[in-house]
Design goal:
heterodimer; A: alpha+beta; Phosphorylase Kinase, domain 1; seven-stranded antiparallel sheet; 9 helices; elongated; B: mainly alpha; 8 helices; 2% strand
């Protein structure tokens, strides 16, 4: 009965699954699939793939729309903000709280946590190579360092004890941050491997740690109670994560 | 609110879904949606009827292309997910599909998502990408073959044994 079955092309199999096949050809494809288990298996795998995609991503469409994406907020913005220079806009973004999209004068402007992390990585790279003046206040004066940075930054800056990770406090310095001052602490191992901790005010509420890597440096970002943390170090991601975890745990203990 | 704005607003959930699958990172994805909306609202007067839905997908797809181009010199950001070793089956499956997607080249990922996740027609996707339908179909076929292989590679237990 199917002797005049015209062979089915790859394109037709896709069109069949996607509902793009002309009605009169559907029956032919179905007969073809019944006779060709390999093709039937592939068609089945594409359907399973679609189910996996929906299972993974449909929940995003069901989430409430974040406030910064509300139409009313977007149309209220004065026009000149859109065209602001990207660099200035990034600062305005961080300073402007939830005022969102002013950072996006350029489509490629990085998000708040990304530019924050880049600032920290820049500081890390600038100072870890420094032999004679890596810090302003030495780690021998831990209490003074903490009191000074706390006073200037406006939140409790603690230099965590990372001896368990083999890290000794070199010291710290005050830096300009994206929104006011930033504290910068440096640690090193006996072999001279250096890690830094950068903290500054941020509007990002990303509680989950984010990893960034650039050239031979790695960084982990997270935010807690309005303060962003970036722990930077070498490219060994596991090592970095362990150090960051220790920093996080001690900040938790002291913060509450 | 104007009818135009209403139809843009109705698309936000779907745009967020598409952007997340396209860009992986939640912040980056919402940045893309925000840029898309700003651009669309700014061009409200230039929009002379037609399909708002396709138009929004087109803007987002192009913005993402530009973003990736300028990203080449920036560090790569990713979520640290390995602190969740005992994820349930669906979560693990979600991670697998996410990882498989990330290995696709940009145009193929976009075609695959527009057709399979967003349910757009081949014709619409061809217009969005500015290519002939034949190109859409070959990108889709290659993307599906690639994802299938990637999924089978990451979950050998599910491989069919004859």
């Amino acid at each position: 009965m199917t002797e005049r079955m015209i062979s089915v092309t790859e394109d037709e199999l896709h069109a069949y699954v996607d509902g793009e096949l002309p009605g009169e050809r559907r029956a032919d494809v179905e007969a073809w699939l019944a006779a060709h288990p390999d093709d039937a298996e592939r068609v089945q795998s594409w359907r399973a793939m679609a189910e996996m995609l929906h299972a993974r991503y449909d929940m995003i469409a069901q989430e409430p729309v974040p406030r910064r994406l509300e139409i009313e907020r977007l149309v209220r913005r004065p026009r000149q903000w859109i065209w602001g220079a990207a660099a200035a806009a990034v600062i305005a973004f961080v300073a402007g709280g939830g005022a969102g999209w002013v950072a996006h004068g350029a489509a490629s402007a990085p998000s708040a946590f990304q530019s924050f992390t880049l600032d920290a990585l820049d500081a890390h790279r600038l100072y870890v190579v420094e032999v004679r003046h890596p810090v302003e206040v030495s780690g021998d004066e831990r209490a003074h360092l903490q009191a000074w940075l706390t006073k200037r930054c406006g939140w409790a800056v603690r230099a965590p004890d990372l001896e368990a990770s083999g890290l000794k406090l070199v010291g710290g310095r005050l830096l300009p941050g994206p929104n006011g001052p930033a504290s910068f602490l440096m640690y090193e191992t006996a072999s001279g491997e250096r890690f830094t901790i950068y903290t500054a005010r941020t509007t990002s509420d990303a509680t989950q740690m984010r990893y960034a890597t650039q050239d031979k440096d790695g960084a982990l970002f997270w935010a807690d109670r309005g303060v962003g943390y970036v722990v930077s170090g070498g490219s060994d991601r596991d090592r970095l994560r362990k150090v960051a975890q220790a920093v996080y745990d001690q900040a938790e203990k002291n913060g509450s | 609110m104007s009818a135009f704005r209403q139809s843009v607003e109705a698309m936000i959930p779907a745009l967020r879904r598409y952007a997340r699958a396209l860009a992986r990172d939640a912040d980056v994805a919402d940045d893309l949606v925000q840029d898309t909306l700003v651009r669309a609202l700014r061009s409200e007067r230039l929009f002379l009827g037609g399909d708002v839905r396709s138009w929004l997908y087109t803007i987002l797809t192009n913005l993402n292309k530009n973003r990736r181009r300028s990203l080449a010199r920036r560090p790569q950001f990713m979520q640290l997910t390995e602190n969740n070793p005992d994820a349930s089956g669906t979560e693990a499956e979600g991670r697998d599909i996410e990882r498989a997607l990330s290995t696709l080249v940009e145009e193929q990922r976009s075609v695959l998502l527009l057709v399979m996740l967003e349910g757009l027609s081949y014709r619409e996707v061809a217009d969005i990408q500015g290519v002939p339908i034949g190109t859409v179909m070959s990108r889709l076929a290659r993307a599906r073959a690639h994802i299938k292989a990637a999924l089978e590679g990451s979950r050998p237990a599910l491989r069919r044994v004859k």
